Protein backbone atom coordinates (compact mmCIF):
# COMPACT_ATOMS: atom_id res chain seq x y z
CA UNK A 1 0.00 0.00 0.00
CA UNK A 2 1.22 3.48 -0.89
CA UNK A 3 -0.35 6.79 0.00
CA UNK A 4 -0.09 10.05 -1.91
CA UNK A 5 -1.51 13.50 -1.27
CA UNK A 6 -4.76 12.70 -3.03
CA UNK A 7 -5.09 8.93 -3.28
CA UNK A 8 -4.08 5.71 -1.51
CA UNK A 9 -3.41 2.59 -3.58
CA UNK A 10 -3.06 -1.07 -2.69
CA UNK A 11 -2.00 -3.68 -5.26
CA UNK A 12 -2.49 -7.43 -4.86
CA UNK A 13 -1.42 -10.26 -7.15
CA UNK A 14 -4.30 -12.62 -7.85
CA UNK A 15 -3.98 -16.35 -8.43
CA UNK A 16 -3.95 -15.82 -12.21
CA UNK A 17 -0.96 -13.40 -11.82
CA UNK A 18 -3.14 -10.39 -12.57
CA UNK A 19 -2.37 -7.36 -10.40
CA UNK A 20 -5.55 -5.80 -9.03
CA UNK A 21 -5.70 -2.33 -7.50
CA UNK A 22 -7.74 -0.85 -4.69
CA UNK A 23 -7.82 2.93 -4.94
CA UNK A 24 -9.24 5.17 -2.23
CA UNK A 25 -9.17 8.98 -2.36
CA UNK A 26 -7.22 10.54 0.50
CA UNK A 27 -9.23 12.68 2.96
CA UNK A 28 -10.04 16.05 1.46
CA UNK A 29 -8.51 19.13 3.06
CA UNK A 30 -11.97 20.50 3.79
CA UNK A 31 -12.59 17.84 6.42
CA UNK A 32 -12.97 19.31 9.88
CA UNK A 33 -9.87 17.72 11.38
CA UNK A 34 -7.43 18.67 8.61
CA UNK A 35 -6.34 21.95 10.33
CA UNK A 36 -5.40 19.87 13.38
CA UNK A 37 -2.80 18.03 11.29
CA UNK A 38 -0.77 21.24 11.13
CA UNK A 39 -0.48 21.58 14.92
CA UNK A 40 2.66 19.99 16.42
CA UNK A 41 1.97 17.21 18.96
CA UNK A 42 -1.69 17.13 17.89
CA UNK A 43 -1.01 16.18 14.28
CA UNK A 44 0.60 12.92 15.36
CA UNK A 45 -2.52 11.64 17.12
CA UNK A 46 -4.77 12.65 14.21
CA UNK A 47 -2.42 11.09 11.68
CA UNK A 48 -2.19 7.81 13.61
CA UNK A 49 -5.96 7.43 13.88
CA UNK A 50 -6.35 8.32 10.21
CA UNK A 51 -3.70 5.78 9.23
CA UNK A 52 -5.39 3.08 11.31
CA UNK A 53 -8.71 3.72 9.57
CA UNK A 54 -7.13 3.81 6.10
CA UNK A 55 -4.96 0.75 6.70
CA UNK A 56 -7.95 -1.31 7.84
CA UNK A 57 -9.78 -0.63 4.57
CA UNK A 58 -6.83 -1.71 2.46
CA UNK A 59 -6.04 -4.74 4.61
CA UNK A 60 -9.66 -5.85 4.38
CA UNK A 61 -9.48 -5.60 0.58
CA UNK A 62 -6.33 -7.73 0.40
CA UNK A 63 -7.78 -10.32 2.78
CA UNK A 64 -10.92 -10.62 0.67
CA UNK A 65 -8.84 -11.10 -2.46
CA UNK A 66 -6.77 -13.79 -0.72
CA UNK A 67 -9.89 -15.57 0.52
CA UNK A 68 -11.44 -15.58 -2.95
CA UNK A 69 -8.30 -17.04 -4.51
CA UNK A 70 -8.28 -19.77 -1.85
CA UNK A 71 -11.72 -21.08 -2.71
CA UNK A 72 -11.87 -24.76 -3.59
CA UNK A 73 -14.32 -24.27 -6.43
CA UNK A 74 -11.98 -23.35 -9.28
CA UNK A 75 -14.78 -22.72 -11.72
CA UNK A 76 -16.49 -20.33 -9.37
CA UNK A 77 -13.25 -18.51 -8.66
CA UNK A 78 -12.49 -18.23 -12.39
CA UNK A 79 -15.97 -16.88 -13.08
CA UNK A 80 -15.57 -14.24 -10.38
CA UNK A 81 -12.14 -13.23 -11.64
CA UNK A 82 -13.36 -12.81 -15.23
CA UNK A 83 -16.52 -10.94 -14.26
CA UNK A 84 -16.48 -7.35 -15.51
CA UNK A 85 -18.50 -6.25 -12.48
CA UNK A 86 -15.97 -7.49 -9.98
CA UNK A 87 -13.52 -4.51 -9.96
CA UNK A 88 -16.44 -2.13 -9.51
CA UNK A 89 -17.59 -4.13 -6.54
CA UNK A 90 -14.18 -3.90 -4.88
CA UNK A 91 -13.51 -0.27 -5.67
CA UNK A 92 -17.06 0.89 -5.13
CA UNK A 93 -17.72 -0.01 -1.53
CA UNK A 94 -20.73 1.67 -0.03
CA UNK A 95 -20.16 4.54 2.37
CA UNK A 96 -21.45 2.39 5.22
CA UNK A 97 -18.93 -0.37 4.47
CA UNK A 98 -15.99 2.02 4.24
CA UNK A 99 -17.01 3.81 7.42
CA UNK A 100 -17.56 0.53 9.27
CA UNK A 101 -14.15 -0.86 8.39
CA UNK A 102 -12.48 2.46 9.23
CA UNK A 103 -14.18 2.64 12.64
CA UNK A 104 -13.20 -0.97 13.35
CA UNK A 105 -9.58 -0.15 12.55
CA UNK A 106 -9.53 2.86 14.86
CA UNK A 107 -11.20 0.93 17.68
CA UNK A 108 -8.74 -1.94 17.28
CA UNK A 109 -5.82 0.48 17.47
CA UNK A 110 -7.18 2.21 20.58
CA UNK A 111 -7.93 -1.07 22.36
CA UNK A 112 -4.48 -2.39 21.49
CA UNK A 113 -2.77 0.72 22.82
CA UNK A 114 -4.82 0.63 26.02
CA UNK A 115 -3.93 -3.01 26.66
CA UNK A 116 -0.29 -2.48 25.74
CA UNK A 117 -0.13 0.54 28.06
CA UNK A 118 -1.93 -0.95 31.07
CA UNK A 119 -0.62 -4.53 31.19
CA UNK A 120 3.13 -3.72 31.52
CA UNK A 121 2.34 -1.26 34.34
CA UNK A 122 0.32 -3.92 36.16
CA UNK A 123 3.03 -6.56 35.69
CA UNK A 124 5.79 -4.23 36.91
CA UNK A 125 3.73 -3.26 39.95
CA UNK A 126 3.12 -6.91 40.75
CA UNK A 127 6.81 -7.85 40.41
CA UNK A 128 8.57 -4.78 41.83
CA UNK A 129 5.90 -2.56 43.41
CA UNK A 130 7.08 -2.93 47.01
CA UNK A 131 10.81 -3.24 46.44
CA UNK A 132 11.77 0.46 46.06
CA UNK A 133 10.26 3.96 45.81
CA UNK A 134 12.18 5.45 42.89
CA UNK A 135 9.63 6.33 40.19
CA UNK A 136 12.24 6.56 37.44
CA UNK A 137 13.44 3.03 38.14
CA UNK A 138 9.85 1.78 38.11
CA UNK A 139 9.30 3.46 34.75
CA UNK A 140 12.50 2.01 33.32
CA UNK A 141 11.47 -1.47 34.42
CA UNK A 142 7.99 -0.92 32.99
CA UNK A 143 9.52 0.17 29.69
CA UNK A 144 11.77 -2.90 29.65
CA UNK A 145 8.76 -5.16 30.26
CA UNK A 146 6.82 -3.39 27.51
CA UNK A 147 9.69 -3.82 25.04
CA UNK A 148 9.97 -7.48 26.05
CA UNK A 149 6.26 -8.00 25.40
CA UNK A 150 6.52 -6.19 22.07
CA UNK A 151 9.53 -8.15 20.80
CA UNK A 152 8.03 -11.48 21.89
CA UNK A 153 4.69 -10.66 20.26
CA UNK A 154 6.27 -9.59 16.96
CA UNK A 155 8.60 -12.59 16.90
CA UNK A 156 5.77 -15.08 17.45
CA UNK A 157 3.68 -13.32 14.80
CA UNK A 158 6.54 -13.50 12.30
CA UNK A 159 6.61 -17.30 12.62
CA UNK A 160 3.19 -17.67 11.01
CA UNK A 161 3.33 -18.01 7.20
CA UNK A 162 0.70 -15.35 6.51
CA UNK A 163 2.28 -12.70 8.75
CA UNK A 164 5.74 -13.53 7.44
CA UNK A 165 4.42 -12.85 3.93
CA UNK A 166 2.89 -9.59 5.15
CA UNK A 167 6.24 -8.56 6.63
CA UNK A 168 7.92 -9.38 3.30
CA UNK A 169 5.58 -7.00 1.52
CA UNK A 170 6.35 -4.45 4.24
CA UNK A 171 10.02 -4.81 3.37
CA UNK A 172 9.21 -4.47 -0.33
CA UNK A 173 7.41 -1.18 0.31
CA UNK A 174 10.46 0.20 2.11
CA UNK A 175 12.78 -0.88 -0.69
CA UNK A 176 10.63 0.81 -3.32
CA UNK A 177 10.43 4.07 -1.36
CA UNK A 178 14.18 4.08 -0.74
CA UNK A 179 14.94 3.38 -4.39
CA UNK A 180 12.62 6.21 -5.44
CA UNK A 181 14.25 8.59 -2.95
CA UNK A 182 17.62 7.72 -4.44
CA UNK A 183 16.42 8.54 -7.93
CA UNK A 184 16.98 5.15 -9.56
CA UNK A 185 14.71 3.50 -12.10
CA UNK A 186 12.12 1.34 -10.34
CA UNK A 187 12.97 -2.11 -11.64
CA UNK A 188 12.97 -5.26 -9.54
CA UNK A 189 16.74 -5.62 -9.83
CA UNK A 190 17.39 -2.00 -8.80
CA UNK A 191 14.91 -2.04 -5.91
CA UNK A 192 16.26 -5.29 -4.46
CA UNK A 193 19.67 -3.62 -3.95
CA UNK A 194 18.28 -1.34 -1.24
CA UNK A 195 17.68 -1.97 2.44
CA UNK A 196 14.30 -3.05 3.75
CA UNK A 197 14.65 -0.64 6.70
CA UNK A 198 13.35 2.94 6.54
CA UNK A 199 13.39 5.83 9.02
CA UNK A 200 9.74 6.88 8.51
CA UNK A 201 8.27 3.46 9.23
CA UNK A 202 5.43 3.05 11.71
CA UNK A 203 7.50 0.38 13.46
CA UNK A 204 9.91 3.14 14.48
CA UNK A 205 6.99 5.03 15.94
CA UNK A 206 6.10 2.03 18.15
CA UNK A 207 9.51 1.83 19.79
CA UNK A 208 9.71 5.61 20.19
CA UNK A 209 6.35 5.60 21.99
CA UNK A 210 7.80 3.19 24.56
CA UNK A 211 10.94 5.29 25.10
CA UNK A 212 9.02 8.57 25.24
CA UNK A 213 6.56 7.04 27.68
CA UNK A 214 9.35 6.28 30.14
CA UNK A 215 10.28 9.97 30.16
CA UNK A 216 6.76 11.41 30.25
CA UNK A 217 5.53 9.10 33.02
CA UNK A 218 8.49 10.08 35.20
CA UNK A 219 6.92 13.52 35.77
CA UNK A 220 3.89 12.01 37.52
CA UNK A 221 3.59 10.15 40.81
CA UNK A 222 1.00 7.64 41.96
CA UNK A 223 -0.06 6.00 45.22
CA UNK A 224 -2.05 3.01 43.97
CA UNK A 225 -1.94 0.68 41.00
CA UNK A 226 -5.24 2.13 39.76
CA UNK A 227 -3.78 5.65 39.79
CA UNK A 228 -0.73 4.42 37.93
CA UNK A 229 -2.81 2.82 35.19
CA UNK A 230 -5.29 5.65 34.63
CA UNK A 231 -2.51 8.28 34.61
CA UNK A 232 -0.88 6.36 31.77
CA UNK A 233 -4.14 6.08 29.88
CA UNK A 234 -4.79 9.81 30.28
CA UNK A 235 -1.26 10.59 29.07
CA UNK A 236 -1.50 8.25 26.08
CA UNK A 237 -2.39 11.04 23.59
CA UNK A 238 0.57 13.06 24.92
CA UNK A 239 2.94 10.14 24.47
CA UNK A 240 1.68 9.48 20.95
CA UNK A 241 1.94 13.14 19.98
CA UNK A 242 5.48 13.53 21.31
CA UNK A 243 6.56 10.21 19.76
CA UNK A 244 5.39 11.36 16.35
CA UNK A 245 7.44 14.54 16.65
CA UNK A 246 10.48 12.50 17.73
CA UNK A 247 10.02 10.31 14.66
CA UNK A 248 9.91 13.37 12.39
CA UNK A 249 12.96 14.82 14.13
CA UNK A 250 15.08 11.66 13.79
CA UNK A 251 14.06 11.36 10.13
CA UNK A 252 15.27 14.92 9.49
CA UNK A 253 18.68 13.97 10.95
CA UNK A 254 19.19 10.73 9.08
CA UNK A 255 21.86 12.29 6.84
CA UNK A 256 23.70 13.97 9.74
CA UNK A 257 26.73 12.03 11.03
CA UNK A 258 26.43 10.80 14.64
CA UNK A 259 22.91 12.25 15.06
CA UNK A 260 21.56 9.77 12.53
CA UNK A 261 21.99 7.07 15.18
CA UNK A 262 19.05 8.56 17.10
CA UNK A 263 16.78 6.75 14.67
CA UNK A 264 18.46 3.38 15.04
CA UNK A 265 16.11 1.92 17.71
CA UNK A 266 13.28 2.13 15.17
CA UNK A 267 15.43 0.54 12.48
CA UNK A 268 16.36 -2.30 14.82
CA UNK A 269 12.69 -3.05 15.47
CA UNK A 270 12.12 -3.23 11.72
CA UNK A 271 14.39 -6.27 11.68
CA UNK A 272 11.32 -8.03 13.10
CA UNK A 273 8.51 -6.18 11.30
CA UNK A 274 10.05 -6.51 7.82
CA UNK A 275 11.45 -9.50 5.94
CA UNK A 276 13.44 -9.72 2.72
CA UNK A 277 10.89 -9.81 -0.13
CA UNK A 278 10.87 -12.00 -3.20
CA UNK A 279 11.17 -10.54 -6.69
CA UNK A 280 7.44 -11.11 -7.26
CA UNK A 281 6.59 -9.17 -4.12
CA UNK A 282 8.83 -6.30 -5.14
CA UNK A 283 7.15 -6.25 -8.54
CA UNK A 284 3.73 -5.85 -6.90
CA UNK A 285 5.04 -3.02 -4.72
CA UNK A 286 6.49 -1.24 -7.74
CA UNK A 287 3.16 -1.60 -9.54
CA UNK A 288 1.30 -0.13 -6.57
CA UNK A 289 3.71 2.79 -6.25
CA UNK A 290 3.60 3.55 -9.97
CA UNK A 291 -0.18 3.40 -9.99
CA UNK A 292 -0.32 5.84 -7.09
CA UNK A 293 2.01 8.26 -8.91
CA UNK A 294 -0.03 7.89 -12.11
CA UNK A 295 -3.27 8.78 -10.30
CA UNK A 296 -1.59 11.70 -8.55
CA UNK A 297 -0.50 13.10 -11.93
CA UNK A 298 -4.02 12.71 -13.31
CA UNK A 299 -5.53 14.48 -10.32
CA UNK A 300 -3.00 17.33 -10.42
CA UNK A 301 -3.03 17.76 -14.18
CA UNK A 302 -4.42 21.15 -15.33
CA UNK A 303 -7.96 20.87 -16.71
CA UNK A 304 -9.41 22.85 -19.63
CA UNK A 305 -11.77 25.66 -18.65
CA UNK A 306 -15.28 24.42 -18.07
CA UNK A 307 -14.28 20.77 -17.53
CA UNK A 308 -16.07 19.04 -14.67
CA UNK A 309 -13.98 18.03 -11.68
Can you tell me about this structure?
By secondary structure, this protein is mainly alpha-helical. It has one domain. Helix content is 65%, strand content 5%. The protein has 11 helices and 3 strands. A 3-stranded antiparallel sheet has the order 1-2-3, with helices on both faces. α4 packs across α9, α6 crosses α11 and α8 crosses α9. The longest helix has 34 residues. It is globular, with a radius of gyration of 22 Å. The chain starts with a strand and ends in a 9-residue tail after the last helix. The C terminus is likely disordered.
Write the layout of secondary structure elements.
Blueprint: E1 2-3, E2 7-13, E3 19-25, H1 43-69, H2 74-82, H3 86-91, H4 95-128, H5 135-158, H6 161-181, H7 188-191, H8 202-217, H9 225-252, H10 264-273, H11 279-300
Antiparallel strand pairs: 1-2, 2-3
Helix pairs in contact: 1-4, 1-9, 4-5, 4-9, 5-8, 6-11, 8-9, 8-10
Output the radius of gyration. 22 Å
* Major β-sheet profile: 3 strands, antiparallel
State the order of secondary-structure elements, H for helix, E for strand: EEEHHHHHHHHHHH
Strand tally, please?
A: 3
Percentage of residues in helical conformation: 55-70%
β-sheet strand percentage: 5-15%
Oligomeric nature of the chains: single chain
